[in-house]
Structure formats: C-alpha cells, structure tokens
Amino acid sequence: xxxxxxxxxxxxxxxxxxxxxxxxxxxxxxxxxxxxxxxxxxxxxxxxxxxxxxxxxxxxxxxxxxxxxxxxxxxxxxxxxxxxxxxxxxxxxxxxxxxxxxxxxxxxxxxxxxxxxxxxxxxxxxxxxxxxxxxxxxxxxxxxxxxxxxxxxxxxxxxxxxxxxxxxxxxxxxxxxxxxxxxxxxxxxxxxxxxxxxxxxxxxxxxxxxxxxxxxxxxxxxxxxxxxxx
Length: 230
Prior knowledge:
The chain contains 8 helices and 8 strands; from the N terminus they run αβαββββαβαβααααβ. It has helices at 10-23, 37-47, 117-127, 160-166, 181-187, 190-200, 203-209, 214-219; strands at 25-26, 52-56, 71-76, 86-87, 102-108, 128-139, 172-178, 223-229. By secondary structure, it is of the alpha/beta class.
C-alpha cells in the first residue's frame, strides 16, 4: 500500500464547518409564510428611524415605501431611468466612500441572481456600519426564474449549510426556513403560490408539512430568510 499523502488538515476544516452549522441559530417563525410578507413587515419595522438603508433591487417591492428612514437608496446593475439611484454591480469592489455607509442593507431574492454571491456578501458587509444589519433571502428548493431575455440571470441555490457559510463573517446570524418539505414541492408550481397561498395564506402549507419531520421541514425548505448583524 502506498504511503498516504496528506495535503490539507481536512479533518480540522470539516470540524470547523460542522461547528459553524451547529452554532448557527435557526428560527421557524417564517417557515409557512408563503409570500414572506411578514418578514418584509418586520424589516420595515426594524429599519424605522434608521439614518440610511440600502434596498438592493428594490426587493422590498410593495413594502419599499414603508421604509421610514432618513435615507433609502436603491441599487441595481440595470439602469431603468427613474430607478435605481445607484447603478452598480454588487459583485465588484466599491469606492472607499461607500464603506460603512448604511445602517441596514436589504437583499431579498438577490444573491441567486448574481454571478459571485460570496463577493456580493463581502460587499454588503463593506457597505454596512458596525452593528448594522443585513436582511437576506436566498432560495433553496425553487424553480428556475430568469425572464426570457435574461436581463436578470438565475445562478445559485443555497441549502441551510450554504446559507450559514455565506454569512459566516457576520457576528450575529439567524436563519429562518420558509415553507417545509411538502409545501416546498407544491410551491414549485406557480398556481400554488398565486392561488392557494394567496387565497388561504399559510394554512395549507402547515397541513401539508405535518406529514414530515421537524428536521425534514427545516432542511427541505423553499428558501431561507437570514438576519445577519455586522
């Protein structure tokens, strides 16, 4: 038998990864909130009165106008004329004057659409003041959703483990699963979200997911809301 070649301390690295995942807080508050509206309302509440907030991609949508802050900037890689007020690539380095500019950065359903999500999250930390909060949503088990013209691309999905690693440099992190094992499957079909959830709310999701274990519901989610403090 040939001598074993040890290139890296792989066991130590694997132990660090397991520790990171075990110690990342998971909260089921939003597991069955099909439209994530409650999370957006919570973001608006927590941002109220802050001096400066960045809404990337105007991802707060109908809740954007509820951001009662001193300054609310929007950022997008595409220039639509009256939107955004900052045209920038969140994956590229920002000038020094942007460092610690915002008290909160909101990036819901953004990181799956950027070509370098780890560079994007590093830039989000760069934009945040110390003690500032990043509000994030990333999909996991979700359909492809780029428009036919590919103006917005669809690159990535994030498991619970991937979400924990994505925000590992933040000091205080909570991950909130959205939907459970069986409602996630139902959500793959557009009619579920547009008809069942819109009409009946989260009740049908809870009924479906009673058939799965708590662990399966946590790990086989449609996506994860993440609150991360710098």
